[in-house]
Specification:
Elements: E1 8-12, H1 32-38, E2 41-45, H2 50-61, H3 80-85, H4 106-117, H5 124-141, H6 145-165
Parallel strand pairs: 1-2
Helix pairs in contact: 2-4
Length: 167
């Protein structure tokens, strides 16, 4: 497929970056992201905004107005679990901008990571800036708690300086 020897980028849920317990107990084992990276797939934190996810997903589920337009998402017959679960997803009773998370929504969540990687109505510069921010956050999450605190304090100072400048 032409990808041998290259790192493949994929977006994933934030839980993929948490250390897993090992025989010693606690979180010393490798995270899912580390396991995938060792196999050539580099995971990056996807956007956790459920409201944006469902909007982007719905936008792609709209049928083209004519046969000349390309669909924004194609689901093949071989996507058995997508076909089985997505049509039966129910809207959350308390929030019409979200789906009910008590149901089987794994395929939907994965499809959302794919559509959030190529948002409609967002410039590529905005996406790159957002990815940089998320990569930094993921890197900081792996730091010792004292270092995380220092970075948090620096971010607060930067925000205060930006406010004073009127930015």
């Amino acid at each position: 497929m032409g990808v041998a020897g290259r790192i493949t980028w994929r977006y994933s849920g934030p839980d993929c970056f948490q250390k897993k317990p090992n025989y010693q107990g606690g979180g010393q084992g490798p995270s899912t992201a580390e396991v995938f990276k060792n196999r050539g797939v580099e995971l990056h934190p996807g956007d956790p905004s459920r409201k944006d996810k469902i909007r982007q997903f719905r936008e792609r589920m709209v049928l083209p107005k004519s046969n000349l337009e390309m669909p924004l998402m194609v689901v093949y017959r071989s996507c058995k679990h997508f076909i089985r679960t997505v049509p039966s997803l129910a809207i959350d009773d308390d929030n019409v901008e979200d789906i009910d998370t008590e149901q089987e929504d794994h395929v939907y969540d994965e499809a959302c990571h794919a559509v959030m990687a190529r948002r409609i109505g967002v410039s590529s510069e905005d996406i790159e800036a957002e990815v940089r921010i998320k990569v930094v956050k993921a890197q900081r999450a792996n730091l010792e708690p004292a270092h995380q605190k220092v970075w948090s304090e620096l971010d607060n100072i930067r925000e205060k300086i930006a406010e004073l400048r009127g930015e």
